[in-house]
Amino acid sequence: MTTKRHLHLAPWIFTLGFFLAWEIICRVLKVSTFVLPAPSTIAQAIWEYRNQLAFHAMHTLWMTLAGFGIAVAFGLLLGMALGASRLINAGTYPLLVGFNSIPKVAVVPILVFWFGVGWVPPVMTAFLISFFPIVVNVATGIATVEPEMEDVLRALGASKRDIVFKVGVPRAMPYFFGSLKVAITLAYVGSVIGEQNASNVGIGNLLTRASAAFEVPLVWAALVVLAVLGVVMYVITALIERSMTGWAQRSDMAAA
Amino acid sequence: MTTFVDIQDVTHVYARAEDGAPAVQNLNLTVREDEFAAIVGPSGCGKSTLMKLATGLQFPREGTVIVGGREVGAPVKLAGMAFQNPTMLPWRTTLDNILLPLEIVEPHRSRLRKHKAEYVAKAECLLAQVGLKGQGHKFPWQLSGGMQQRASLCRALIHEPKLLMLDEPFGALDTFTREELWCVMRDLHAAQKVTIILVTHDLREAAFLADRIFCMSARPGRIVAEREVEFPRPRDLEITYSAPFASLVQELRGHIAQARAAA
């Protein structure tokens, strides 16, 4: 019982402790706000700019979710193709890895050439940066179906499609949800990069303008808002995961 | 009785075999309809290859495989399979696992949705036969290894296969559970008209269950001895402690020892 309560409290205590330590260091060492504002200063800035922050955060949230949604759909489809066919897997892997190695900041100008400044570049950047882990994980889940299970079904006359949909896809779900947790945070990185370079709204754009004007507390306030949004989305993904793949989280290790 | 599985002079080399050595060579084997055949042999003798050949998962390089009067050129569709590993899908309940073959095999595949209740009743009946009455709603990982293996037998039988292939199905179980499952298997065979090929390392298991036992040689596998088992049915576990049973097991052991020495 007590261990369980400790586990529930631990994230709050650690987070509060982190900000408390930060505050104390800033005050004791008299760190300039320009270098590192104390959490209290950042909190003040958040309150002061709350309307502006909320507006831009909502925009960023939309960009992120749109890009993430496309990444999920695309990642699932491509992952299924890669997992089901060794030929497609072998053929496309170098391309995928090569593409994933390109820093997405470098792709944003190209997106601007194509689509102009607006909502498309942030959404596309979020998509491009977050689909790769989904593809790899779904493909792994499908490609690692037990050969005996495959034999049982093939001996019944099951087609490749049957095996992929009856066994491969459900089996890949824990991998899929694991990758979603990585992908959702990556999607934030993507949409903010897109907004910084090719949008007139969104937290990314706010960051660019605030740093150009040396409004350091506002920059930090924007970063904190981003982090909080990221945590909230992560938690939602994790909750969905737990309700969908409870069968995969039955070991004591997952429960502890 | 008519021949159901006829393997004639079959040699098989896996496409992936690095040395190109055959897994089985000049293999001859016939199993009659509704017969319970057991195949024993030293490990790595190609018993699993034999299973794959008979179910149409692999096609022989030479020779012919005839199952149910037709030469095998594709997965046979009338077979059920069970392995040492129960391979239950953890996201399905035990009952849904057992119904899985019906989602694949015609004519059940197109009937399943409309006649679900009928099929569920059939699955429940099978569960009761293997001693798992009322356990269908549980997930397989909530069952013990022996119970999972029973469920796996139900899955292999749900679509009323003509041919049941068992690849060391009781290999991973403790002695008591294994003997219990022998009796389950014996009763299932008595209740349903089905040809069974059991691949096993356990000579007592083969002698207790089978009508006929084939001994295979070491790789490349072929049949070195064939032995009818004449104990009357229904057999009781007690017979495994009788003198004729012991001498049969000893005789089989001799064949295997010879096959191992020859390798």
Automatic annotation (TrEMBL), chain A:
Keyword line: Cell membrane, Membrane, Transmembrane, Transmembrane helix, Transport
Topological category with respect to the lipid bilayer: Multi-pass membrane protein
Domain of life: Bacteria
Bilayer-crossing regions: 7-25, 61-83, 95-117, 123-145, 175-193, 218-240
GO BP annotation list: transmembrane transport
Subcellular location: Cell membrane
Transcription recorded as keyword: no
Pfam families membership: BPD_transp_1
Segments forming domain ABC transmembrane type-1: 57-241
Gene Ontology cellular component list: plasma membrane
Family: Belongs to the binding-protein-dependent transport system permease family.
Entries under PANTHER family matching the protein: ABC TRANSPORTER PERMEASE PROTEIN HI_0355-RELATED, ALKANE SULFONATE ABC TRANSPORTER-RELATED, MEMBRANE SUBUNIT
The name this protein goes by in its record: ABC transporter permease
From TrEMBL, chain B:
Domain of life: Bacteria
Pfam family of the protein (one): ABC_tran
Cross-referenced InterPro entries: AAA+_ATPase, ABC_transporter-like_ATP-bd, ABC_transporter-like_CS, ABC_transporter_ATP-bind, P-loop_NTPase
Molecular function via GO: ATP binding; ATP hydrolysis activity
Keywords carried by this UniProt record: ATP-binding, Nucleotide-binding, Transport
Every ABC transporter domain range: 5-243
Family: Belongs to the ABC transporter superfamily.
Name used for this protein in its record: ABC transporter ATP-binding protein
Organism encoding this protein: Microvirga alba
